[in-house]
Amino acid sequence: MASAAQSRAPTPVPEAARARSWARSPSAHEALEAHYAANPGTRPNHPHPWDTSRSDIYAENRWEPIFKEMRAEGPLHYIPESPYGPYWSVVGHKAIQHTEALPEIFSSSWEYGGITILERLADVPLEERMELPMFIAMDRPKHTGQRKTVAPAFTPAEMKRLEGEIRQRTGECLDALPRGETFDWVNTVSIPLTTGMLAILFDFPWEDRDLLTHWSDWSGDTELASVRALDDVRRGMLREMAAYFQMLWAERAQRGEAPDLISRMIHSPAMNQMDPQEFMGNLVLLIVGGNDTTRNTMSGIVHALDRFPDQRKLFEENAELIPNAVQECIRYQTPLKHMRRTCTQDTELFGQNIAEGDKVILWYNSANRDESVFENAEKLDITRENARRHIAFGYGIHRCVGARLAELQLRVLMEEMHKRRLRVDVTGDVQRVRANFVEGFRKLEVEVTRF
Fold it and tell me: Which end of the chain has fewer surrounding CB within 10 Å, N or C?
């Protein structure tokens, strides 16, 4: 039988595009570290002890005690000084749900600053700011129309249609893993599976699918986006991505309706008149949302099961626990740490006075450790009865549109691991992502055996 990759008919791309190098190097991480090495005095300074925008606490995995201390003092706190300006930190589960339920007061719109902690660059010309409109960074009614365009790609019927191919690709990947040697799970499993899924969703040329990971890393790193010396390189990466997708758009416009995301945009009144910035913004949203999040949870699952051997034993002995284990692993991993909202009017929130224009940061990673909701929240418990109460996908009108697909990919991965009696032991280097937005692993060296 042909492999999942071979069974797809790749979309043709003009030879002129194929001949380009697409600037595959350096990676976003390499560029940022090289900049800091050459300019050590430019690393962000975080004087406030509760400024959880600092990336080092995540790279070194010491963020949990800081948020626990904050939650003990209250559900939200004002941080007067940070490299990203002053902001409110919302750290409680209930407080985040309440804030997300008031989208007219707490706006997601890119016009106010968007969905990340980044400051608006007032001293930069508008055309150079790289402020990208995307439907997650829009308010109603425009948000509604654009979300409705892509939502049919993630219905239960579509998940059923995609499951067979996802399962085949996952099985082939696991069957090809080396035995008796240490390898990097991130590069061998997590990245190939999620990048392949993105290529299917976009009907993206299969031989160029690694570009999706490359672009995702460059566009989804908030700290990199704040380093002005890298603006030109980052802007070049985004333009490169836009040019490639514009070619695909032109090619799809000659076809009829199809289930891939680009074709859905073309045939949608809400999205077929997008300007270049808006098109690029929605591409970034779909690529980062579909790549970084699931990719890092796939790594987080094997790391967590290794860290909690009692839970790994439960998983190995009880395949029926897998659906709930997926929810618990998403809660435990929380692939996106925060979302930002901007207050549109003076208001009061859990006893605090929030002023119009204030930046409000919703820390999902903290909410998923909230002791008032999750007993022993710092522990992985795949039998946890309320694991589905996690807030990793957000809440309200901006809840992740691709949540079903993420759950499907993770469930299939765990099922195929169990079917093969595959045990993954962390045996080597573990490097976490140094970022305040995406939570995950840059490297996870493991060895596989059978249970």
Answer: N
